[in-house]
Design a protein that fits this description.
The chain is α+β, with helices and mostly antiparallel strands and 281 residues long. The protein contains ten helices and four strands. Strands 1-4-2-3 form a four-stranded mixed beta sheet. Helix 1 packs antiparallel against helix 6, helix 7 packs across helix 8 and helix 7 packs across helix 10. The longest helix is centred in the middle third of the chain and has 22 residues. It is globular, with a radius of gyration of 19 Å. The N and C termini lie close together (11 Å). The relative contact order is 0.24.
Length: 281
C-alpha cells in the first residue's frame, strides 16, 4: 500500500490574518475534498462497501484496490502495467493475498486516480484538512481553472519525481496513493502568495496553547520536517513527494486575482500525523 506521512492537521477558524479572504466560494477546493471523500466511502479502506468483505478479505481487497488505482513507479517509468511475475514480489497485505495483473491499466492516468485514493479515513482527514484551510486562499488568488491545473500538475510532478527516485528500490512495485504531494504544492503556493500571513497554531509542547506565528515560520518548519527524513528509507512514508510538491508549489504560484481588503484567521495544528502502512503520500 502507499502512504505518506500525513501533514499536520489544521482546522478552520473565523477571524483575521494578514491574507485576503476569498471573495467567492472555493468550488474547486470543495470539489476535490468531496471527490476524495466519495472515493474513500466507495472503496475498501473505509469498510462500508460490502462487496469488499470484512476482516482479512477487506485488507486484501484494499491492497488490490491501491495497486489498481495507485501510481506504481515501475509502471510509470515503463509505461506498462506490472505483470504477474512482478506483482508476485509484493509482500501480501495478509497471508494468502495475491494481486492480479491489470493489463488495461494506463500508468499515466493512474497518477490522477491516485490523488483521490486514500488509505483510510485518518489518511484522508490528515491530508484534506490542510487543503480545506489553505486551498481557498490559493484558489482565490490563482482563479478556479488555474488552481485546478496547479493542483493536478504538481500532483503529477511530485509523483513522477518520486517514481524516478524509487526506480531501483524495492518500493518500485508498490503503489503510491494520496493527495499530499498536490496539497504540499498548495502549502508552498500559499507561502509564496501570502508571505506575511500569520497562522494561529496549536503548540503540543505547551499543552496545545494556541499561538500566532508567521506563515513562513509554520510552513517552513513543516517543510524542514519533511526534508529531514528524505535520505533514510522510511517504509510507508513518501516524504520526497511532499518536498517536491512544496517546492514546485512555491516556484509556480503566481497570483491572478488581486487581493481584497478583507481578512480572516486560520488555525493550524502543527502536530505531525502517524504514518500508515505502505507508501502513502
Amino acid at each position: 500500500m502507499a502512504v505518506p506521512a500525513p501533514v499536520p492537521a489544521p482546522v478552520r477558524a473565523a477571524a483575521g490574518r494578514d491574507a485576503a479572504a476569498p471573495a467567492r466560494t472555493p468550488l474547486v477546493t470543495y470539489a476535490l475534498i468531496a471527490l476524495s471523500a466519495l472515493v474513500l466511502l466507495a472503496g475498501p479502506s473505509f469498510g462500508l462497501n460490502p462487496r469488499y468483505g470484512t476482516g482479512a478479505a477487506r485488507v486484501c481487497a484494499e491492497q488490490r484496490f491501491e495497486q489498481h488505482w495507485g501510481a506504481v513507479p515501475a509502471e510509470l517509468l515503463s509505461g506498462k502495467p506490472l505483470d504477474a511475475a512482478r506483482l508476485a514480489t509484493l509482500p501480501p497485505a495478509v497471508p494468502g493475498c495475491t494481486v492480479t495483473p491489470t493489463p488495461h491499466k494506463i500508468p499515466f492516468l493512474s497518477v490522477l486516480s491516485s490523488l483521490f485514493v486514500h488509505a483510510g479515513w485518518l489518511h484522508l482527514v490528515g491530508n484534506l484538512l490542510f487543503l480545506y484551510v489553505f486551498g481557498p486562499d490559493v484558489e482565490e488568488r490563482l482563479g478556479r481553472l488555474r488552481f485546478l491545473l496547479f493542483y493536478l500538475g504538481i500532483g503529477y510532478l511530485a509523483t513522477y519525481g518520486w517514481a524516478l527516485a524509487e526506480a531501483d528500490s524495492t518500493q518500485s512495485v508498490r503503489a503510491l496513493v494520496g493527495a499530499s504531494g498536490a496539497i504540499a504544492g498548495v502549502l508552498g503556493g500559499y507561502l509564496r502568495l501570502y508571505p506575511r500571513a500569520r497562522v494561529t497554531t496549536l503548540v503540543p509542547v505547551l499543552f496545545f496553547l494556541p499561538l500566532r506565528f508567521p506563515a513562513w515560520l509554520v510552513l517552513g518548519l513543516w517543510f524542514a520536517l519533511q526534508w529531514w527524513p528524505v535520505g533514510p528509507a522510511v517504509p510507508g512514508v513518501a516524504y520526497l513527494v511532499h518536498v517536491i510538491g512544496f517546492s514546485a508549489g512555491w516556484l509556480l504560484a503566481r497570483p491572478v486575482r488581486p487581493r481584497t481588503g478583507q481578512t480572516r484567521r486560520l488555525t493550524a495544528d502543527t502536530l505531525g500525523g502517524t504514518p500508515h502502512t505502505g507508501a502513502e503520500e
